């Protein structure tokens, strides 16, 4: 049995960091009663020492040198909440090197340096836990790592970015244009002033890479993940989806196709019957399909100081218990698994085309699909004259065939502009 | 580091037991790759040795003496899938006494003998895991025990009985009477030939007791749980709920009210906006509210051989890893927490009353509510003559006041029969 007081070194004291300190303070005695462990934040690293630090104990050692905390022998366990690749990577590395368990909420770090850091943690026989890095308060990582370790998981589909889900929900529920919904999200603090990482899909792509590592033991990093965002989605697309009994969601998709793994982020039309279609507002949800399990969905708050702090605290307690029992859990080796390439993937598609409103246009455009061996499920003409728009839902087709269609369409004189292209998924 | 081959003694070889053996067989190499552990079912206890045992290895030792497996030094870990209180209690006790971790799916056993068995496991420093005992393939127990160990959980509401959820869904979607829906459930194997434990609410009550132990560290046993079932719910109640934008669900409710804990099972009208209202068919789902976490929902298959086997396997791997690292996790002490008594509880209620269709009846019946200090939210008269029926939705009222109303109503000459009484919950 190891020690019963665990000193925590906290790196980063922003929204989540201060929520974590408050939550731990209020739950200290409950945690002690349940585990026999006294968890204390003894060291905190901040960027700017001159700011007030409300909620911190007077005895807490404040420093602007994060690195010193990671090597301080008085610190038992390190919580990294700085975000970003650097200097987070250096301090997490240093903490693991000095044999300290690390809890991190840093999706960028893990999606870029996960393989290295997981193997370093295993080598040093310490925990590296990261529940809060994917879907905030939704306990997906623990469920995948522990509950489903033996489950033949086939597919994981997640709404893992609250910003884009909020924007899409507003566009659907209030018939709001994209820009207005984005501004609303910014006003509420759901979107940053530069929203690119969220709306462009990169944030979700980082999470997809982490999910692939955890669920499939695959050595996937952010640069392996193909991603699209929601910037091109128009009100007309949302309105069409609604009429068709669908809702548009930005999905992180990690699924097995034989020996290959698909790891990708894209907006998709989901039929209203699908459990993920009911996930509104800034909520996150992850749908898991497994051979034995059938289906499982986890739903909750994907972001926000308190829900994220709750996830961090769960990991901190886990690592503290392991530390006191002188044990840990590693991630196992990450293997090279071949990733499904874009062209081979099959899906039904929604294709919207802005056309000149003249006789014969529909037939001309439709024939392009046929020439590329794509059969059409439904076809609709909307608007007139300059606003004339053809909307197609295709049967399942390979992405490469669809690209052929789009290239050909863009060259037609009757096509004024290619509109949005969105995958259409089954229930 | 302990041994790397883990011999499993399996007690019970029914639906779940054989699914477990098949699942483990198919996942053996994956589990070995991820954990370095070789899991083998070496001993199986059955009731009837003369039956064929498909899927069992020729080297597996078959016996009808479960007790011998629990004390066999060659067995490292025991999986109890016999169900029922006895002899399950004796064999689980014997296994723990001999220092073997136990995985059980036995809700009855834990809801009656949980406190004793958890403390025995802690004393012998071995795992006693039971994910499959509540909500089958939905990983609620691990999430509560680990992810939310530090979370100030306030309320857990669960649809934890698939049989009743199937029946209620059929009644709502197909306007099927209760008896017909029950027969349909029996035909599909969702309900047993004697369905009392499911439709009467006792199965859900066992699960509520276990949830209270895990989430609140409360020493609650089945006998402490007040429960109602769904046998009295009529098509007219379902139809009324639908018109009112609600759906009727059988809920296991475990929630904090100041220093008191409510642990109860009852059918309730839930507004369509509530995430649990969309849980159809035989699915299970559990909704958790916490101060930091906000809200979290887990949704999946609550029963069935394969989903339950998946939950058992997750626990078996967890216990096997702990065994190999010579560690375990205990449940902590279960404390005496005072339970909210019936009379004090507040809720809005749906009350249906069959009356004589004559002038003044409505006023007479309504006045009884006023006399008991219960104010009425809405009131509706349905049908005529012998089918005349008054339906009230009350504002929030204490259960004891409502009982006063029901007693008085039953004495009125114009009241032919008291109909169903159902709690009405807010979104």
Q: Which class of secondary structure composition applies to the elements of chain A?
A: alpha/beta
CATH superfamily descriptor of the largest domain in chain A:
Dihydrodipicolinate Reductase, domain 2
Q: What's the helix-strand series of chain A?
A: EHEEHEHEHEHEHHHHEHEEEEHEHEEEHE
Low-confidence stretches of chain A: none
Task: Describe this structure as you would to a colleague.
- 2 copies of one chain form a homodimer.
- Chain A is of the alpha/beta class.
- Chain A has 3 domains: 5-136 and 305-324, Rossmann fold; 140-299, 2-Layer Sandwich (Dihydrodipicolinate Reductase, domain 2), CATH 3.30.360.10; 342-424, Alpha-Beta Plaits, CATH 3.30.70.260.
- Chain A has helices spanning 15-35, 66-71, 88-97, 107-123, 140-147, 162-173, 178-187, 196-199, 202-216, 235-243, 305-324, 361-371, 399-411, and strands at 5-11, 38-45, 61-63, 77-80, 102-104, 128-129, 153-159, 226-227, 246-257, 260-271, 283-290, 294-301, 346-355, 376-382, 389-394, 397-398, 415-424.
- In chain A, strands 7, 8, 9, 10, 11, 12, 13, 14, 15, 16 and 17 form an 11-stranded mixed sheet that branches. In chain A, strands 3-2-1-4-5-6 form a 6-stranded parallel sheet, with helices on both faces.
- In chain A, helix 1 (15-35) crosses helix 11 (305-324).
- The model of chain A has no long low-confidence stretch (mean pLDDT 94).
- Strand 12 (294-301) of chain A pairs antiparallel with strand 12 of chain B, so a sheet runs across the interface.
């Amino acid at each position: 049995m190891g020690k019963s007081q665990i000193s925590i070194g906290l790196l980063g004291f922003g929204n989540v960091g201060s929520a974590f300190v408050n939550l731990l303070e209020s739950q200290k005695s409950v945690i002690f009663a349940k585990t026999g462990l006294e968890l204390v934040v003894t060291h905190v690293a901040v960027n700017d020492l001159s700011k007030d630090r409300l909620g911190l104990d007077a005895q807490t050692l404040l420093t602007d040198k994060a690195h010193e905390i990671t090597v301080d022998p008085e610190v038992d366990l390190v919580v990294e909440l700085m975000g970003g690749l650097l200097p987070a990577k250096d301090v997490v590395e240093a903490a693991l090197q000095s044999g300290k368990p690390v809890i991190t909420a840093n999706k960028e770090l893990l999606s870029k340096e996960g393989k290295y850091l997981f193997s370093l943690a295993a080598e040093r026989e310490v925990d590296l836990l990261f529940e809060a890095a994917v879907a905030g308060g939704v306990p997906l990582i623990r469920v995948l790592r522990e509950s489903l370790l033996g489950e033949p998981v086939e597919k994981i589909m997640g709404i893992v970015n609250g910003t884009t889900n909020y924007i899409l929900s507003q566009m659907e529920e209030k018939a709001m244009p994209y820009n207005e919904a984005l501004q609303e999200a910014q006003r509420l603090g759901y979107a940053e002033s530069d929203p690119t990482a969220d709306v462009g899909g990169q944030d979700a792509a980082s999470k997809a890479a982490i999910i692939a590592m955890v669920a499939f033991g695959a050595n996937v990093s952010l640069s392996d993940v193909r991603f699209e965002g929601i910037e091109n989605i128009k009100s007309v697309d949302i309105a069409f989806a609604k009429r068709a009994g669908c809702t548009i969601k930005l999905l992180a998709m990690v699924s097995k196709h034989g020996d290959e793994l698909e790891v990708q982020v894209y907006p998709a039309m989901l039929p209203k019957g699908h459990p993920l279609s009911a996930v509104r507002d800034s909520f996150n949800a992850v749908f898991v399909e497994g051979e034995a399990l059938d289906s499982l969905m986890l739903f909750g708050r994907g972001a926000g100081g308190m829900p994220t702090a709750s996830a961090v605290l769960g990991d901190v307690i886990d690592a503290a218990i392991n530390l006191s029992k002188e044990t840990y859990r590693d991630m196992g080796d990450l293997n090279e698994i071949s990733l499904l390439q874009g062209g081979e993937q099959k899906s039904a598609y929604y294709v919207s085309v802005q056309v000149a409103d003249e006789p014969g246009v529909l037939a001309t455009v439709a024939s392009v699909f046929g020439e590329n061996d794509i059969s059409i499920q439904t076809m609709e003409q909307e608007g007139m004259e300059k606003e004339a728009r053809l909307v197609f839902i295709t049967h399942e087709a390979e992405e490469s065939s669809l690209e052929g269609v789009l290239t050909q369409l863009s060259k037609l004189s009757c096509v004024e502009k290619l509109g949005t292209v969105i995958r259409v998924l089954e229930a």
